[in-house]
From TrEMBL:
The lineage of its organism: Bacteria, Bacillati, Bacillota, Bacilli, Bacillales. Keywords: ATP-binding, Nucleotide-binding, Transport. It holds the Pfam family ABC_tran. InterPro entries: AAA+_ATPase, ABC_transporter-like_ATP-bd, ABC_transporter-like_CS, ABC_transpr_LolD-like, MacB-like_ATP-bd, P-loop_NTPase. This is ABC transporter ATP-binding protein. It comes from Tumebacillus amylolyticus. GO terms for molecular function: ATP binding. PANTHER family: IMPORT ATP-BINDING PROTEIN.
């Protein structure tokens, strides 16, 4: 959490190996990933990190299942087990019967759930979410947080940026950032 412009998205982008820090180092599972070559960083990111952004950015010309499979499509051929996993993830996010639908026919909250399923297709241990509940109504936001809690219970690490103070009750740890610096860190 932190005011607008304090560096939350920048931090997520550095933690998720999308950006290099201008100083300091990032350790991922004990490894200094700032020292890696770009190709190795890309591979680590593809295999270990799932991203969920405020805007789901689904591809309108693809159906819902294909959108979930997109990261796999970009990396090679889709296997039968990939399709089975996509359907299982869609069931987990409450969209079991929507796989064949065009993504633009889904509501905003449903599209975000598709984006979460897409982030999980590679079974990454780390999920980074930038304001995933922004502009969602309270009930849909709670549902989204329920999904994140289940991921956390299943052993994944979820790092989420939010402006909504009420959501801190879902977190094990809350970090407050001010002008690019950690101001406060509390454990729930
Ligand atoms: N690659 C970069 N180089 C230099 N400055 C950057 C870079 N990326 C972001 N910034 C700046 O860092 C500051 C923090 O941006 P960031 O998007 O992380 O804020 P935020 O806390 O996520 O804000 P918001 O809540 O408004 O989304 C901004 O002033 C932005 O312009």
């Amino acid at each position: 959490m932190g005011p607008s412009g304090s560096g939350k998205s920048t931090l997520l982008s550095i933690v998720g190996l999308l950006s290099q820090p201008s100083e300091g180092a990032v350790f991922f599972d004990g490894q200094d990933v700032t020292q890696l070559r770009e190709r190795e960083r890309t591979q680590l990111r593809a295999e270990r990190v799932g991203f969920v952004f405020q805007f789901p950015s689904l591809v309108n010309t693809l159906n819902v299942r294909e959108n979930v499979l997109l990261p796999k499509m970009l990396r090679g051929r889709i296997t039968k087990s990939d399709r089975t996993r996509a359907d299982s993830l869609l069931a987990q996010v409450g969209l079991a019967d929507r796989g064949e639908d065009r993504s633009y026919t889904l509501s905003g909250g449903e599209q975000r759930r598709v984006a979460l399923a897409r982030a999980l297709i590679g079974d990454p241990p780390l999920v980074l979410a930038d304001e995933p509940t922004g502009a969602l109504d309270e009930t849909t936001a709670e549902e989204m947080m329920g999904l994140f809690s289940r991921l956390q219970t299943a052993g994944k690490t979820v790092v989420m940026v939010t402006h909504d103070r009420s959501l801190t009750r879902f977190a094990n740890r809350t970090v407050k950032i001010q002008s690019g610096v950690i101001d406060r860190c509390s454990t729930n």
